[in-house]
Amino acid sequence: MRDGRGTGRGHAVVAGAGIGGLLAARVLSERFERVSVIERDALPEGGVPRRGVPQSHHAHGMLSKGFEVLQDLFPGLHEDLVARGALVRDVQADVNWFNDGRRLRREPSRLPCLMVGRPELERYLRSRVAALPGVEIHQRTEILEPLADPAGRVTGVRLLRVNAEPEVLDADLVVDATGRSNRGATWLRALGYEAAPEERVDSGLVYVSREYRRRPGDADADAFVVGASADAPRGGVALSGEGDRWLVTLFGMNGDVPPVDPEGYHRFAQRLAVPDLHRLLERLEPLTAPRLMRSPVSIRRRYERLARFPEGYLVIADALCQFNPTYGQGMTVAACEAAALRECLAEESAEPLAQRFFRRAARITDVAWDMSVGGDLRFPFVEGRRTPRVRLLNRYVARIHRAAETDPAVGRAFLAVANLEEPPQRLMAPAMLARVLRPRPAPARSTASAAPAAPATGVHPSERTAS
């Protein structure tokens, strides 16, 4: 693929066998004769956490848009994962959402969400990618650096296998999908290029997760999402999943850290803005001890702003942008970037592949980054520039949460945007503005759950038809 147009045959190398690397390999397999995925970890046979993905012990969100892309790239994924215990549910009808301490009204939305553990999802994608013609996954192998010719074009990588000498692997395209621990800046400087400018936001996030046994009748919903608010900068998520379990993640900010002892963990849940998640935990049987993780700073690397960039080289997924994980955007953005790369590879264009891809990836990232960073800037202890636009939007989002308590159409619009199915402008449409800003009495606030329960017929709420 020496012409840089994204067409032709050859050899592509992907650094990293996480979600982003596997999705990149999937789309590259359509255009390259060979695809080599290089992973420094030993890859487990089953769906269990691995050393290189420490966040896999914690709750992960696959937003509706990401689920849509995965099904397009891997036909049969929905059925395969459900057969292994994953759940596919309606994101509004089957989830108890609490934003600013307000319960979003539950109604069918036709927005599906996938509830599956990160290790099981990665295992499944890895098995599908490994079965593709021409694709090989090399584990326990580390890429030391990309290599380039005198003109600056990347021609391969220098890698190191366990108990072996360094070797060179030639390639027509190298994709950095090494995630949060990537060495992209070092690699670019070694090739004679500037590192990408960065934007950073530190929310001071710490989260602690624990697994519980899941039994029929535990709750009236398959997931709970309790968002943090300026008044209560802590929250939590409980997701149903494979293996008849609940995966519960509690998070705090600005030094308010969830304890790792079981009693302290439950006391922290009791301090959330609403009692529902704590009440759920009080009924459940724990399966594991609480496990803590400090979230790295959110970093966006602006590769699209570089005037010079080596041909034959790309960056994707968390190596491109790493988000605050409480918004659940990372895997979905990686999926959308893979879809954008697929489009770029299919085009006939004289413009270099990297320029076209980074420009499209930036448009995808803009939406998710603005939502998560804008949300982080609600908290006075988070450093960042609070423009009049950011302040206005945060006040408007607060009005959305209030309206969504009683108006399911507002809730659906909010969830469609949060799930990257609709652009944020959807929330500014005249009809939606009228709904959001309409004067309304405050709903009766009760400490008891008021969400609709599943009907007695045994039909799941997600299977009901919206009127």
Question: What's the gist of this structure?
Answer:
By secondary structure, the chain is α/β, with parallel strands linked by helices. The protein has helices at residues 19-28, 64-73, 77-83, 118-130, 184-190, 262-270, 276-283, 330-346, 353-376, 388-404, 408-418, 430-437; strands at 11-15, 34-38, 87-90, 95-99, 102-103, 112-115, 135-138, 141-148, 154-161, 167-170, 173-176, 198-201, 206-213, 223-226, 234-241, 245-252, 291-294, 298-301, 313-315, 321-322.
Plain-language structure description:
It is a single chain. The chain is of the alpha/beta class. The chain has a domain at 11-60 and 120-201 and 297-374: 3-Layer(bba) Sandwich (FAD/NAD(P)-binding domain). The chain is 30% helix and 21% strand. It is built from twelve helices and 20 strands. It has helices at residues 19-28, 64-73, 77-83, 118-130, 184-190, 262-270, 276-283, 330-346, 353-376, 388-404, 408-418, 430-437; strands spanning 11-15, 34-38, 87-90, 95-99, 102-103, 112-115, 135-138, 141-148, 154-161, 167-170, 173-176, 198-201, 206-213, 223-226, 234-241, 245-252, 291-294, 298-301, 313-315, 321-322. The strands form five sheets. It has a seven-stranded mixed beta sheet, with helices on both faces. The N and C termini lie far apart (52 Å). Residues 1-7 and 446-467 have low confidence and may be disordered.
